[in-house]
Amino acid sequence: MSKPKKVVLAYSGGLDTSIILKWLQTEYGCEVVTFTADLGQGEELEPARAKAVTLGIAPENIHIVDVREEFVRDFVFPMFRANALYEGLYLLGTSIARPLISKHLVRIAEETGADAVAHGATGKGNDQVRFELSAYALNPAIKVIAPWREWDLTSRTKLIEFAEANQIPISKDKRGEAPFSVDANLLHTSSEGKALENPGDEAPDYVYQRTVAPEDAPDTAEMLEITFEAGDAVAINGEAMSPATILTRLNEIGGRHGVGRLDLVENRFVGMKSRGIYETPGGTILLEAHRGIEQITLDAGAGHLKDSIMPRYAELIYNGFWYSPEREMLQALIDKSQEHVSGTVRVKLYKGSVRTVARWSDHSLYSEKHVTFEEDAGAYDQKDAAGFIRLNALRLKLIATRNARVAKKG
């Protein structure tokens, strides 16, 4: 690959991406543009701007963009319409943020005339795949630089030495071995590495940042009503809110009740297993409530088909194929299923758990007169079930008869 002249870097302001910024300047002699996304990670982002300036980035080349509403509206909510879970448990909090970051990296590259983008993902993880597949899908001509796959800064010690040699500010807690690595956004926090690498050891309490321990949660349960329109949450307790505001509020409520903790050993796309600690309080509530409203508004055939494709859909997101035609095809099917998924769900939060306790909708398919144990006024003729059973039993009876005949001859 020829040396780039201008690179847009996904920049957090932390030590690693600051080293990458300086490395790009020294290794390629290129102009660097920084992009910092406000994904609701809960950190002040202006220090990233100041740090970029100290590293020689012109103010006009520093882009800090609030993408919280876009993140929830265009990425999180479509994913939650599918009830997506990777390997049955993981709510894909890191995975779903990467295509959005890549989208803005490519956009800024096109607007500033940059010929390359760069990211700080390592060569062992999933994020390198997600960033790069997304970037190439959006701009097949873009160059992608992944310093962790190129440089010789293969240890924390070498990183610190490079930082000191290039006058890169190092916060004191970075001089020793960090206990674990954290990624955060409005949907979740993800912690992995170091103190968490042995899956045989319970994660220490200090790892958890967004949720209280369930045993320390309030002794009184809290009821919460979430209203949906076409599969998306639109209100909490009757108060209409924007997508990002809804998720923020659910995070606050779920966090104080200890909801949404997950200790998972997952299969990375690159082939290895990794152990992560995830906190997704708002997302866990949202999933339970969405399931609750689907129970009364979604037809059995549509719901079962949707559930059958969900693992494939979740895997596509996990593996970085958000912008693939197959994900878009599945999304169209999922979105079609959500046309009548509107109504309100009441959930109960208590000591780390959230469960649906009531649901109602003008679009409900639930018919009390058909399922009642009392008189049903002729809504359902129970005698019809006999023929239904006989027809469904026919093939089973034929198989049993055949097997008995073969066994007798043998």
UniProtKB/TrEMBL annotation:
L-aspartate binds at residues 122, 126-127. It comes from the Bacteria. Residues 6-169 form the Arginosuccinate synthase-like N-terminal domain. One of its GO terms (cellular component) is cytoplasm. It catalyses: L-citrulline + L-aspartate + ATP = 2-(N(omega)-L-arginino)succinate + AMP + diphosphate + H(+). ATP binds at residues 10-18, 37, 120. Pathway: Amino-acid biosynthesis; L-arginine biosynthesis; L-arginine from L-ornithine and carbamoyl phosphate: step 2/3. Residues 180-398 form the Arginosuccinate synthase C-terminal domain. GO terms for molecular function: argininosuccinate synthase activity; ATP binding. Keywords: Amino-acid biosynthesis, Arginine biosynthesis, ATP-binding, Cytoplasm, Ligase, Nucleotide-binding. The keyword Manganese does not apply. PROSITE patterns: ARGININOSUCCIN_SYN_1 (PS00564), ARGININOSUCCIN_SYN_2 (PS00565). L-citrulline binds at residues 90, 95, 126, 130, 181, 190, 266, 278. GO terms for biological process: argininosuccinate metabolic process; L-arginine biosynthetic process; urea cycle. Its EC number is 6.3.4.5. It is found in: Cytoplasm. It is an enzyme of class 6 (ligase). Gene3D superfamilies: Argininosuccinate synthetase, chain A, domain 2 (3.90.1260.10), HUPs (3.40.50.620), Single helix bin (1.20.5.470). Belongs to the argininosuccinate synthase family. Type 1 subfamily. Homotetramer. This is Argininosuccinate synthase. The lineage of its organism: Bacteria, Pseudomonadati, Pseudomonadota, Alphaproteobacteria, Rhodobacterales. The gene is argG.
